[in-house]
Amino acid sequence: MNLRLLVIVLCHNGLDLTLDCLTSLEEQAGGPYWVLVVDSASQDGTAETVRRQFPGVEVIRSEENIGYAAGNNLGLRYGVEKGADLFLLLNNDTLLERDCLQSLMASADSHPRAGMLGPMVYTWGEGMTISSAGGRIDWEHADAVNVGAGEADKGQYGPRSVDFLNGCGLLVTREAVEKAGLLDERYFMYWEETDWCTRVRRAGLELRFEPGARIRHKAPIRSVELGPVPLYYMTRNRMLFFSTHAPGLRRLKAILHAYHGAWIGSRRERIRGRKRHARAIEQGLFDAATRRWGRLAAAGWAIDRILVPMPWPTPAE
Known about the structure:
This protein is an alpha/beta fold. It has helices at residues 15-26, 46-53, 67-82, 100-110, 174-180, 192-202, 228-245, 250-271, 275-289, and strands spanning 5-11, 33-40, 58-62, 86-91, 94-96, 114-123, 130-132, 135-138, 143-146, 160-161, 169-173, 206-217.
């Protein structure tokens, strides 16, 4: 295979996780590939430490936290300029099993119409609990489901075409970038890979799940484990995704489903006594309705209050 692969490791703090991820890359079979760390305003010395401990790794540093979409776009533009044919996007809180890259590259070589390929994603730690075995979009109920999440891997999910792939570990071809463009930076984080995958599929390319490639991801698989900021972005960006991509007359139905699901989620959080989580969901709904995108929640947002008056009644505190 004469494919030139650039591995883009995106990080915002989490130095120990980044170093462990880079170590797992060093132990990969196969090649050739080179590694770029995109440091999104880490405050823990990530850039300097990586340069010192991994002198073969290139580092680009942003002076502000620009999020998943813009951070990976920075790496993608760099790779396109350098002539890369393939890009592997990795979150820094991932670990690759030894044959991961080799399996993904072999699958890319065997499936030339695949614009994106994704590995089996396991939860963190020991065991074979699935976090994602590819993704399915439920257009009727305005949802995107990580297939197999929480199940033990017994080989029940084979290689196949899917609706989307988890962005924590995503192999992308240059052709996909050229045909579908870069990540949409309005999302900042969450749902942006689902948007990107949808655009790649509509450009006529396949999205392929490859279970022979395996990674572990340090991320929750249940919504109850999410904090207020992730809930904000997931709520707002779900509305953005379905208002953009739901087909024809199903768009209104999808938006209403998404709104209803978020409102139920807000009420459930208040019943649990988690008012900050509820307010985050409500703010996400308001910002979607008023089309406020980008990085809004992460900097200086007091989740203890709603920034703007809600145009609908709020459950009693």
